[in-house]
Design goal:
alpha+beta, 32% strand, 210 residues, 3-stranded antiparallel sheet, 8 helices
Length: 210
């Protein structure tokens, strides 16, 4: 699910402020999502990572019909970025591409390549320790970590006048009641800036950034 333009991906990777994007899923904090935004001319690339519990209220792999339906509804909602992150109307922004999905710990590690090898090593090491007599609770804790899930969405927008964007209204919080905060990292022609947007103050002021 890679729809971000090359310039955005390169910028996210090369900029220290985005270095934490290589984290493992079990490092995420419940209630806190991460949104990366890169402005390039009239294009805006966005990438969202959110713990499964924030979106659907659970992190285990959906098995029941009810849980699968909740995931499907969440994915459909996440695929509509301008309803979640409303930009100033005067900017004339529209969606070019949008994709959303749910990743488990194992799927995330496979996509990351090297991270997958690290995860396999940890699994192997854990099995050896278990054979040596480690407590049952430790095994259960490790299993719970491996069961973490995360929603991931990517968006590509185009705007007639990006400089007219004065703020972003995070209607996201109205859609997902377990979400408490979004850590936002933005790159524009003037550099990189970080913000924290909270449920009780859902509007991010971008005046002066362009």
């Amino acid at each position: 699910m890679k729809i971000l333009p090359l310039i955005a991906l390169t910028t996210f990777t090369a900029t220290p402020v985005f270095a934490e994007e290589t984290r493992q899923l079990d490092a995420h904090e419940h209630g806190v999502g991460q949104l990366n935004i890169a402005f390039d001319g009239q294009q805006i690339a966005m990438e969202l990572h959110v713990p499964g519990a924030d979106i659907v209220g659970f992190e285990y792999v959906a098995e029941s019909a009810q849980d699968r339906a909740a995931v499907d509804i969440a994915v459909a909602t996440l695929a509509k970025p301008l309803k979640l992150f409303a930009l100033t109307d005067a900017a004339g922004c529209s969606v070019v591409q949008a994709a959303a999905g749910l990743e488990s710990e194992e799927e995330h590690d496979e996509h990351e390549g090297e991270h997958g090898e690290e995860h396999a090593d940890k699994e192997h090491a854990h099995e050896e320790h278990a054979e040596e007599g480690h407590a049952k609770e430790e095994h259960e804790d490790h299993a719970n970590e491996a069961g973490h899930t995360e929603f991931h969405a990517e968006y590509l927008l185009t705007c007639a006048d990006p400089s007219a964007i004065a703020d972003i209204n995070f209607s996201y919080f109205k859609s997902f009641l377990n979400a408490l905060e979004v850590e936002v990292q933005i790159i524009t022609a003037t550099g990189a800036t970080s913000f924290e947007v909270e449920r009780d103050s859902p509007i991010l002021d971008l005046r002066g950034m362009f």
